[in-house]
Amino acid sequence: MTTNLLDFDLDGLAAFCERLGEKRFRATQLFRWIHQRGEGDFDRMSDLAKSLREKLKTCAAVQALAVISEHQSSDGTVKWLFDVGAGNAVEAVFIPEDDRGTLCVSSQAGCAVGCRFCSTGHQGFSRNLTTAEIIAQLWYAEHQLRKRLGTSERVISNVVMMGMGEPLQNYAALVPALRVMLDDHGYGMSRRRVTVSTSGVVPMIDRLATDCPVALAVSLHAPNDPLRDNLVPLNRKYPIDELMDACNRYLEHAPRDFITFEYCMLDGVNDQPEHAQQLVALVRRHARSGVWCKFNLIPFNPFPASGLHRSAPQQVAAFARILSDAGIVTTVRKTRGDDIDAACGQLAGEVQDRTRAVERMAKRRTIAIQPVGLPTHSNNKEA
Ligand code: SAH
Ligand code: SF4
């Protein structure tokens, strides 16, 4: 059986190498070749002993994901669609900015949470991605972009687990993937620059705090339980007060001293002044210290099956003002890549939903493969 080496964090790779009778420093060398150099061919790993390379060839491989398509937006955003087998595909999106390069990574094919405003949620759930499938998105994007830009410097400085899927419902595969991102022998990212976004899986927020504390974003979307029950069905299991308590506990371990609350602005649904006032009251009620959270308002990215609409810019601005006037740091997310359906919540990929397969058959779309040029991004500085 061939073992995919993208499945391992450094400890996992060391254990694998030990089983082959190799010392830990060999695993470190191998890990660096794979993640820092983007090398998948053992024969080219020139400082590894020939005997080890031969051994690896018999039992291991660096198995990337097949790329089905790649689209580039006029704003430099690049979206890849990766084949994960059995009719499923997942998406990753690279978002270049002046001071950073962010990769938005998927954790599942589909999603079981089923939020009303999310195109992934509408597709239902097919399966969890493996650690290798999560890391393969970063491995491919980073080394592909470096090649195109003709640089050996790091291009992707930040990762957000905001692609398809609920990362905390795929915890066992997520944590080793995060460790590869953070490892100095891997991608060497700072904990503050790796963000897990969750719809609120309370017990797993607590586990993440001890296992691998990275920046946390919580998709709130509503200031009270009846509305949140309706928009984010997981709220029926973990209601808002429990979620707020978990956020406060997380802060004791978090690399940043605030939690980011994401709030998708839905016209006439959750965007009224009274909703903003309820949020202010909620934040104050749960504040253990002064500034403990920030809000990121996301203009809804519509898709036909949702039946929902984007709030008008004045509505978003008025909502933001109520929060800011109450001392809550609030930003409005700029929409990127919407000309290639790469904006938040538009990541649909291709999911063979095991729970709703028949319904989905009718909706399946064909995938366009378009040639792309270079991303306009050329800035990869660490802030
Ligand atoms: N499952 C995780 C991470 C993936 S979703 C979560 O829900 O947090 C990433 C972000 O995109 C979430 O904040 C989600 O609420 C938001 N989102 C989903 N659909 C959207 C849409 N149609 N328009 C704008 N944002 C959306
Ligand atoms: Fe799943 Fe997040 Fe989409 Fe909700 S918003 S359905 S949790 S991917």
Can you tell me about this structure?
The chain folds into 2 domains: 3-63, DNA polymerase, domain 1 (Orthogonal Bundle); 67-356, TIM Barrel (Alpha-Beta Barrel). 34% of the residues lie in helices and 19% in strands. It contains 12 helices and 14 strands. It has helices spanning 10-19, 24-36, 50-59, 119-123, 131-149, 171-182, 202-211, 225-231, 240-251, 273-285, 313-325, 357-363, and strands at residues 3-4, 60-61, 66-72, 78-85, 88-96, 101-104, 108-110, 125-128, 158-161, 194-198, 215-219, 259-265, 293-299, 329-332. Helix 5 packs parallel to helix 6 (171-182). The protein is globular. Bound molecules: S-adenosyl-L-homocysteine (SAH) and iron/sulfur cluster. Residues 117-119, 162, 166, 197-199, 219, 262, 264, 298, 300-301, 344-345 line the site of S-adenosyl-L-homocysteine.
In brief, what are we looking at here?
The chain is of the alpha/beta class and 383 residues long. It has helices spanning 10-19, 24-36, 50-59, 119-123, 131-149, 171-182, 202-211, 225-231, 240-251, 273-285, 313-325, 357-363, and strands at residues 3-4, 60-61, 66-72, 78-85, 88-96, 101-104, 108-110, 125-128, 158-161, 194-198, 215-219, 259-265, 293-299, 329-332.
Structural class: alpha/beta
**What ranges have pLDDT less than 50 throughout 5 or more consecutive residues?**
356-383
Hetero groups in this structure are: S-adenosyl-L-homocysteine, iron/sulfur cluster
Largest sheet: 10 strands, mixed
Number of beta-strand segments: 14
Q: What is the average of the pLDDT values?
A: 90
Terminal residue distance? 43 Å
CATH level-four homologous superfamily name of the largest domain: Aldolase class I
The name CATH uses for the topology of the largest domain is: TIM Barrel
**Radius of gyration using CA atoms only:** 21 Å
Which architecture of the largest domain would the CATH scheme give at its second level? Alpha-Beta Barrel
Shape: globular
Residues in helix, %: 25-40%
Number of domain modules:
2
Q: Which class of the largest domain in CATH terms?
A: Alpha Beta
